[in-house]
From TrEMBL:
Classification via CDD domains: M1_APN
Record-given protein name: Aminopeptidase N
Domain of life, source organism: Bacteria
Native source organism of the sequence: Lichenibacterium ramalinae
Cofactor(s) this protein cannot do without: Zn(2+)
Amino acid sequence: MRSDQGQPIRLSDYRVPDYLVDAVDLDIHLHETATRIRATLQLRPNPAGVAGAPLHLDGDGLVATAIALDGEPLPLGIAEPERLTLAEPPRRAFTLMVETLVDPSANSALMGLYRSGSAFCTQCEAEGFRRITYYLDRPDVLSVFTTRIEAERAVAPVLLGNGNPVAAGDVPGTDRHFAVWHDPHPKPSYLFAIVGGRLDVLRDATTTGAGRPVDLAVYVEPGKTAQAAYAMDALKRAMHWDERVFGRAYDLDVFNVVAVSDFNMGAMENKGLNIFNDKYVLASPELATDADYAGIETVIAHEYFHNWTGNRITCRDWFQLSLKEGLTVYRDQEFSADQRSRAVKRIADVRALRARQFAEDGGPLAHSVRPDAYSEINNFYTATIYEKGAEIIRMYRTLVGPEAFDRGMALYFDRYDGTAATVEDFLGCFAESSGRDLSQFFRWYVQAGTPRVTATTRYDAATRVLTLDLAQDTPPTPGQPVKRPVVVPLRFGLVRRDGTEQPVRTGAEAGLSATEHDHGVIELSTPSRRLRFEDVAPGTVPSLLRGFSAPVRLTTDATDADLVTLMTHDEDAFNRWDAAQTVLSRLVLAGLRGGPAEPAPLRAALSAVIETGARDPAFAAQVLTLPAVSELAHEIGRDVDPDALHAARERVRAGIGTMLAPAFRAVLAAGRNAGPYAPDAAGAGARAFRNAALSLLAAGDPENGAALALAQFDGADNMTDRLAALSVLGLVPGAAREAALARFYSDFADHALVVDKWFALQAAIPEADTPERVRRLMEHPAFSLAVPNRVYALIGGFGANPTQFNRPDGAGYDLVASVVILLDGKNPQVASRLLGAFRSWRLMEPGRRAKAEAALRRVSGQPALSPDVKDIAARSLG
Ligand code: ZN
């Protein structure tokens, strides 16, 4: 697809463009198989570029049907599918007109202009615009776009573009109509979008603080507007929050959201016209779970927040991707934290970070938040760019404090508005606002891998001195054998055995700087550091990394009793949860080694959590959910046997379920007469708590658990409880499970997003015949390789099944590899994301490792692989 034959693109090769585009006029005639695009570009030499350089416009599989320079036709021979060249462009401003013809119905990669159902839509990030017309398709070329769209009225009564609508009407004497959209804000081509089709719309309106009225609309497939209400509500909350918290107001007269069912990723922040995977828009209590609602709130906010962090200030080049993505994830995390329980949101985010980003950082696909080379940019929309990028933003705030952080953000918005910026530009704003030298902090952007921090304590009862030794190191990652120390902000406190907080008097006595003392944050920037706390009561436990103040793996010498102290008393809710996670994972790992894995020492602490569960059920649910097998596997680090690990984890769950069965039964009984469904934090928390109780009860007593689950499945009035019950049933083989699955399908066969859940749930069954089941389901009439959500549900779901993907006979690896090969020619992005299932293959014991490697080699040996899959396969093997 790309002309650069697998040659990596390097940050060090960055050059400013030789030409600039002042204005783009597009005239698009939509047609199912032959859409005609006439692009008129106002170009001029960039004074900062190379004078007289040839002009190369990017294309991807394009066919030009007409070209003219300042109105004079040019030979079509200057346009190849992948590039249009003007060898000697005028040395002054000039106008280039190019007409292209594309077939949206044949576009199975879902990049550029394609069809989703009967609608037309686009996806241009990162390099999809070049599949529509020839262009300087790079994020540092900003231009003002005017788009005229024309179509048969019956085919596409709705015609949407970026910016504001400026004209619309019929084409006289035809059955066609048109709409003209003008976006006054200069933008890069990756933010371009159009939509055309038969869509229903939910409308609303809001007014910015400065008094600008904004029309809001959510477009959905016909008949689904009722399911768009929550997205609209989230949008309005996000708009108000961004004004209140970041001082960022919306800047157009309209804001449109469109939900489509065929979409490679989550959603896209096109200026004024966000396009979404409908899974992040559509919800109703009967069809969507609490997690779906939370996902909608987050993604709606995320794409809206991009309007400032991404659109108004964009990226100079794709190496800076985290400049917009990390920052925007940070902003959506903060938004959701303000809408719900901050502590529970933080716990959920860290759980996801550990499961996805730590796994990436600890495997062959590790890369830095600001990579210095890539061969396929689509493979860099990763947990590292997004979630680790967000953790870096959070660390800025922890290090410089909230006031300097706010000043730094304001400076960034002020100084870089309307430009394409870099990570260095961003960092400079905080160096300036805080007066601090952040050059060492910059290593977080360029050094891959998860730093390890170890804490060792020594208590001298005679002098009442607690010595805390801290050390850091970062394991090598591909291409980066030697690492240097980073700045690790460790928010901390000292927790006495009686639960009170031990004050740290002046700080100086301990060796803390005044800033560290005032912020309550130890800054570990050297390989090791010693702190001495005086007049410390016996049994006092340091609570480190409060709120997960840095994306590191922390190992302490805390005993189980110390951890129970933290779990019970720490004023930091995150660390109460994390202490519980540590004890639970120690239990699993002890069981794995054949030692005792009795949860008895946790009885009191867990009982207390369950008791207070009435007050904070969402938190209790998080405590009662063990670390995932994949996370535990990374903790072990080598020669993992996922079957043994899964079994050890299930034994601990069963132990807890048996030990606390009466308490869990009481939780379930109390929940029976909970009121009508509401997707708010309180309702969701209560359901999560009850479903965690159900899951543990069933682990301890599968027969009784299955009966309880079946009753809940039958009686549920909402998808959250129904699906939770079905997941519990999913772990208990037998006719009841199969009957429930069949009923679920027949009840919800018309609801694609629910059918996805049905596929995913079966792909997750930890049983030996699951690969066979998945193969069978691929033949199911509802399965289609052309629908990304379906493929992610069944094949992606299977790739995340720790025991069955990693089967010792290699059948799991082969299954995913075969689908990757089958799909690659049609949709390389989806294929390459599926191949990511192999990211942790090197952790496995040698037998599995050999099978995984063979499967990866089979993929990489295929002729004519896409750059996407070729890159992931090569790096996975590298
Ligand atoms: Zn984003």
